[in-house]
């Protein structure tokens, strides 16, 4: 790791499972941190996620490498009496500890902040929960699809009128939450630079979901009147709607009122300028269903390439709806290092998705495969001061597992 990596020398212990907590550690690792992934001897359950529907089927364990790249792996049974000394040394070694173990289990394992901060007062203890630390549901288990999506208000709004809520994209809330947790960690590290003191930082899936749904939730806080659920054929605004092209592509149109005169000329419908139903934004809104029907015919008359040329020339904002297997062919991703090479994973997994921001003039660490279960046991324990005989004893006690080859 070069000196130009922002977090070079920062030591992170990732005790979290699944996606959000480990992904926050990935961001730190992308910028040079030394991240130790601690798993139980059975492994993080996320190792098996790619085999569980509705996850896309593949031979390669793509989600494991995405959420745990650039880490060293330690397989540790925290329930073992002999694990206590390892945990203490890890905490003393670490700058950042990331935990998402439910608090009742944390108490039994002596993993709460007050348990570990006594060993390292400079520690940044990053706590991730489903529903926050307080309240009647603080101890409920939560995934992003239940806490971030369902309970936050997002899932009720991301559907069309007459349709039931749908299954959200797996991991989407987790990755958003990971960015929030990373921001909390970075804020605490800045505070430590100024004061020398560690911090207990936290976020939750529900807090991040409500933040993502913030415009609508804030509207509810002031008793705003909501439009009905979106109906593509009768939207609140036909100029902000989805339209299908002749070659069966969909585009999301976001056209502001000043563009209307030039737009109707470009589509060969100057007659709409004298149509009283569409004279101004207010009348267009009142007659949005009729205008949508007209625009449906217009957009269905030409392929996407034609409409891209027209809309680009007019400077009208739009987005083409892409499936994941189309997204990966978008040249913008590689030009902007959104998709980057992945070293060592094998199989067809040669690329991965970088964390979503850059610091110019600072190179990220090249992405390398995620660790096998317990792959770096001896290396990490030796670094923590355990000699060969102690490591053998720890393995015999069951505190650590034998690495899988």
Straight-line distance between termini: 26 Å
The number of E-state strands comes to 12
Taking pLDDT < 50 over at least 5 consecutive residues as the criterion, the unreliable ranges are none
Percent in strands: 5-15%
How does this structure look, described?
This protein folds into two domains: 11-212 and 336-397, 3-Layer(aba) Sandwich (Rossmann fold); 240-244 and 250-320, formyl-coa transferase, domain 3, CATH 3.30.1540.10. The strands form three sheets. It has a six-stranded parallel β-sheet, sandwiched between helices. The chain has helices spanning 20-30, 62-68, 83-93, 103-109, 113-116, 144-150, 154-157, 172-195, 205-212, 214-221, 260-266, 281-286, 288-299, 304-314, 324-327, 331-335, 377-383, 388-397; strands at 11-14, 34-39, 71-75, 96-99, 124-129, 199-204, 240-244, 250-254, 317-320, 339-343, 351-353, 367-368. Helix content is 38%, strand content 14%. The model has no long low-confidence stretch (mean pLDDT 96). Helix 1 (20-30) packs across helix 8 (172-195) and helix 6 runs parallel beside helix 9. It is an alpha/beta fold. The protein is elongated and about 90 Å long.
Summarize the entry for a quick read.
The protein is an alpha/beta fold. The protein has helices at 20-30, 62-68, 83-93, 103-109, 113-116, 144-150, 154-157, 172-195, 205-212, 214-221, 260-266, 281-286, 288-299, 304-314, 324-327, 331-335, 377-383, 388-397, and strands spanning 11-14, 34-39, 71-75, 96-99, 124-129, 199-204, 240-244, 250-254, 317-320, 339-343, 351-353, 367-368. Helix content is 38%, strand content 14%.
């Amino acid at each position: 790791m070069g000196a130009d990596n922002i977090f070079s020398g920062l030591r992170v212990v990732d005790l979290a499972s699944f996606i959000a907590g480990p992904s926050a550690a990935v961001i730190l690792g992308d910028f040079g941190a030394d991240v130790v992934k601690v798993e139980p001897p059975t492994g993080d359950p996320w190792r098996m996620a790619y085999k569980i529907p509705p996850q896309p089927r593949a031979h390669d364990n793509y989600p494991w490498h995405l959420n745990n790249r650039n880490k060293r792996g330690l397989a540790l049974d925290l329930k073992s009496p002999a694990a206590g000394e390892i945990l203490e040394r890890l905490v003393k070694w670490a700058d950042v500890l990331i935990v998402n173990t439910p608090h009742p289990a944390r108490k039994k394992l002596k993993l709460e902040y007050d348990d570990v901060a006594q060993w390292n007062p400079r520690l940044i203890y990053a706590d991730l929960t489903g529903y926050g630390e307080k309240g009647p549901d603080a101890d409920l288990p939560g995934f992003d699809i239940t806490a971030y999506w369902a309970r936050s208000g997002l899932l009720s709004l991301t559907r069309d009128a007459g349709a039931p809520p749908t299954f959200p994209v797996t991991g989407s809330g987790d990755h958003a939450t990971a960015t929030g947790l990373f921001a909390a960690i970075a804020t605490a590290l800045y505070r430590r630079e100024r004061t020398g003191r560690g911090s207990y930082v936290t976020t939750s899936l529900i807090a991040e979901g409500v933040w993502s749904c913030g415009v609508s939730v804030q509207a509810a806080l002031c008793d705003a009147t909501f439009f009905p659920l979106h109906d593509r054929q009768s939207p609140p605004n036909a100029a902000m709607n989805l339209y299908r092209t002749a070659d069966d592509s969909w585009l999301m149109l976001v056209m502001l009122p000043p563009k209307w005169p030039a737009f109707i000329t470009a589509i060969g419908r100057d007659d709409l300028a004298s149509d009283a139903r569409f004279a101004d934004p207010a009348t267009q809104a009142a007659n949005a269903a009729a205008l949508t029907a007209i625009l449906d015919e217009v957009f269905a008359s030409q392929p996407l390439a034609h409409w891209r040329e027209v809309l680009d020339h007019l400077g009208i904002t739009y987005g083409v709806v892409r499936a994941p297997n189309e997204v990966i062919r978008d040249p913008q991703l590689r030009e902007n290092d959104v998709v980057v090479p992945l070293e060592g994973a094998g199989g067809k997994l040669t690329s991965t998705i970088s964390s979503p921001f850059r610091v110019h003039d600072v190179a990220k660490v090249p992405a390398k495969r995620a660790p096998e279960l317990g792959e770096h046991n001896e290396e990490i324990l030796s670094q923590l001061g355990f000699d060969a005989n102690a490591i053998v004893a720890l393995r015999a006690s069951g505190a650590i597992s034998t690495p899988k080859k």
